[in-house]
Design goal:
Blueprint (H helix, E strand, L loop, with lengths): L22 E7 L6 E6 L5 E7 L4 E6 L3 E3 L7 E7 L5 E6 L7 E6 L2 E6 L2 E5 L5 E8 L5 E9 L2 E4 L4 E10 L5 E7 L6 E6 L2 E4 L4 E11 L3 E8 L4 E8 L5 E6 L11 E6 L5 E5 L2 E6 L2 E4 L10 E9 L5 E7 L2 E10 L14 H11 L20 H11 L6
Antiparallel strand pairs: 1-28, 2-3, 3-4, 4-5, 6-7, 7-8, 8-9, 10-11, 11-12, 12-13, 14-15, 15-16, 16-17, 18-19, 19-20, 20-21, 22-23, 23-24, 24-25, 26-27, 27-28
Helix pairs in contact: 1-2
This protein binds calcium ion (2 copies).
Length: 394
């Protein structure tokens, strides 16, 4: 069985910039070599997603590495796309071959069916956004973006077409996703806010999808370009819902046509996604291959980064020892290896630390305990040498 997006579909070191940026430690979300995808990470760094259960021979949603989420009675499969900071998961429950699906809210008290829709994200006020199956003629199935609140499930207006999906929510009442127009043959990135549905435009090509939203009016997604490439984007939108800037985040590929999509953005404006089958992070104007920011990527290939929280945890999936596997990245404490303060990170900094460790003068006032273990000794020099050589901070 291939693990992929269901139709609802539901559907640092010496960095390339020369900056000593944030680096990460990688953690396997361990399902014993069963294929897994982590779709989201909440504020405390817990991931959620889905894996293929060999016990059930079916998709199963998960929260963390331990909690497996059962589908609704009568269904055979489940998957999680959203996890809030309180640890509540919004799961989709479905059966292969059945076009409909059930939304489950799963928390410590158990599992509740919210309605017949595919949940994709939580809003800041606990709303759940997603899409539901609609019918608009004999034998024709579409989808409608929808919002679940305590008052019930409500459709969001489309841009005119019969197919729309809400993919993420917040801050405020913002909901983002995509919608077809009455005449268009491609999806359009869409913002719902203040009771108004807006077409956010594209990077120049005919179609775009908004897939994530964050503070500061940042909306991310994927768009066709004039040249026909599919690129990850960051759109900046003002409080009135008007797009002020559309940024093509670029590509990690060598050709122009490699697929790329941005899935998540945090309050620092760091964007994560996939480009040319590699997970990326876009920060400070540069797209990084996320793998190069991981201290010891070991046997990993990072393919997709799906979510990033404000603390910098990143969830996603890739290939670990030849198997499709989910990961969570945890930020490693940053360090400043420019110990002599001359703006360069090089052998002179090592010489500076060697002198301080040996009892020499310390005009820049650095803490010589570079590895933070409470002792000032040769280990600090070794840790600094590693950073100067391109390794991660201790
Ligand atoms: Ca220096
Ligand atoms: Ca030390």
């Amino acid at each position: 069985m291939k693990l992929s997006r269901k139709v609802c579909a539901c559907a640092g070191a010496l960095l390339a910039t020369g900056a000593y940026g944030q680096t990460y430690e990688i953690q396997l979300v361990d399902f014993g070599l069963r294929p897994a995808q982590a779709w989201c990470v909440n504020g405390s760094g817990t991931s959620a997603g889905g894996f293929i259960s060999t016990v059930h021979n079916a998709y199963r949603g998960f929260v963390g590495a331990g909690q497996e989420l059962a589908p609704a009675p009568g269904d055979t499969q489940s998957m999680v796309f959203a996890l809030d900071d309180a640890g509540r998961a919004a799961a989709v429950s479905f059966t292969i071959g059945d076009p409909g699906e059930r939304a489950l809210l799963v928390d410590g008290a158990g599992s509740t069916v919210l309605g017949d829709f595919c949940p994709r994200g939580f809003g800041p006020d606990g709303r759940v956004v997603g899409s539901r199956v609609s019918t608009f003629g004999p034998g024709w199935l579409g989808r409608r973006a929808c919002v679940y609140t305590e008052a019930g499930l409500t459709d969001l207006p489309s841009l005119g077409g019969e197919f729309s999906q809400a993919m993420a929510a917040g801050p405020g009442d913002w909901v983002v996703g995509f919608s077809f127009t009455a005449t268009g043959l491609t999806p359009r990135a869409t913002l719902w806010s203040g009771g108004v549905v807006r077409d956010l435009g594209t990077l120049g090509g005919p179609g775009a999808e908004a897939l994530g939203v964050g503070a500061g009016g940042r909306i991310v997604g994927t768009s066709e370009t004039v040249g026909g490439a599919q690129r990850p984007f960051l759109f900046l939108v003002d409080a009135g819902g008007n797009v002020t800037q559309r940024v093509d985040l670029g590509t990690l590929g060598t050709g122009g046509g490699n697929y790329g999509a941005a899935y998540g953005v945090n309050s620092a404006g760091h964007v994560v996604g996939t480009s040319a089958d590699r997970a990326f992070m876009f920060r400070d104007g540069v797209m990084h291959d996320l793998e190069t920011l991981v201290v010891n990527p070991g046997h990993w290939h990072l393919a997709v980064a799906s979510s990033i929280n404000d603390a910098g945890h990143i969830a996603g999936w890739g290939v670990y020892k030849g198997w499709p596997a989910a990961f969570v990245l945890t930020p490693v404490a940053a360090c400043d290896p420019d110990l002599n303060g001359d703006g360069n990170v090089d052998q002179d900094d090592v010489a500076y630390l060697v002198n301080v460790v040996g009892g020499g003068s310390n005009p820049t006032g650095i803490d010589p305990d570079f590895n933070g273990d409470g002792n000032v000794d040769q280990d600090d020099v070794a840790a600094l040498i590693n950073v100067v050589a391109g390794g991660g901070c201790p």
